[in-house]
Amino acid sequence: MNRPRFSIVVPTRQRPHTLPHTLATILNQDHDSFEVIVADNASSSETRAVVEAINSPKIRYVRSESPLTIAANWMRGLAATRGEWITYLGDDDGLMPSALRDVEAIITTHSVDSIRHLLGLYTWPCADSTGEANRLQLPIGEQVHFTAARDALAEMMQAPWTCPIPLPYHGWISRSVLNRAAAAGDIFCSNYPDTFAGILLAAHTDYFATVESPLSINGYSAKSASMRWLLTSHGKETKDEVHSMPASEVIPGHPSVPDALSVPGIILDGLLLVRDRLGDSGIDFRPTRLEIALHCLRGVWLLDDVGQTRVARIRDTLETVADREVFDQRVDKHPRRTSPQTWFIGPPGLYGNWLVCDAKTLGVRNVAEACTAAAGARRCGTLMAAAAAEAARAAQPLPVSVVRFARKWRRTLAKRAEMIRSLMAG
């Protein structure tokens, strides 16, 4: 059997209502050489029924009989792949209609081992914890940039709340770099396998491509295990799920990083674990305990009762009175936020190279329709941004024609989305 060009791994657990829409976005590609691996983490029979109802020869279904850690389920999915390039997609996420064709164009033109892109974001109608249900945010850039992996890792070490490297989740990784990284051990050896693997893979890569346009959309549903829920609930659900596993399966975090879930903590944990595996020749990174604590503090979004507990846990890792005094001074200056973090730039509108849409007005009800609408919305947003930039350069008001266009484009896209739904129903 010929090896497919691409493998898309979809880890899933108890999401039969979102999974079919995710699979629909993958199967709706204008590139034929791909396979889909559905890695079912001990879900009920409904998940298998979803896959069987689709009945596509592109999909291979692998299931664990008992619950696995996220890392173990990801490894199970990877072991089933045969493609030359691999990506992971969540079971409430979506692949843009031309994603595989776009990736093919990059890897046939440029010598890179991995690709990252600016993600689109979509909140399902059921995800309304912060009043942002059914919203769509899209980058509208078109450029492809190339970055030395060492430079990107250095940026992460300086600012471990950023992650400017390709990750297996939503990124695209070549089989060759996966094999190089796997020679030193399990590439998902962390309770946060995506971040750890991304850092490990970057350490085995010379250059990677960054695409300004979205190849996929990160979906947030009511039961999403994404970073959004980690931030809004202090990571309780993620942590409870990890500790519910048998002790022998839980992967210890790095001892230098406080047991306080935050974006900086997860990135620091990955950097230090990779450094320990590869040595200084791989990553030369030796932050002090105080530097680690201050970075982790930055990731505590709300200083409510749970947030205060996390701050205390971080403080307890400091060994000297001087370090604790510096830490306490920083805590006193920490923002006293009263609401959860939002991923969206603002209400619907155009923000430079980003477009925020009210997806409901586009007739969108799920991530599959969001991906279809996103293609048209990006085109509209690009035209609007170009016209606004030209008007600014000429020091003139925005042309009346562009203003009318901005008012009209939502209605046009809503009609297009309705037409697409009719075709799908047929």
Brief rundown of the structure:
By secondary structure, the protein is α/β, with parallel strands linked by helices.
Q: How do the strands line up in the largest sheet? A: 3-2-1-4-10-6-11-9
Low-confidence stretches: 227-239, 398-407
H and E order: EHEHEHEEHEEEEHEHHEEHHHHHHEEHH
Largest sheet: 8 strands, mixed
First CA to last CA: what distance? 33 Å
Strand content is 15-25%
Average residue-wise pLDDT: 84
The 3D shape can be described as globular
Note the total helix count. Answer: 15
| Helix proportion | 40-55%
Quaternary = single chain
Number of strands: 14
Instruction: Give Rg in angstroms.
Output: 22 Å
Q: Structural class from helices and strands?
A: alpha/beta
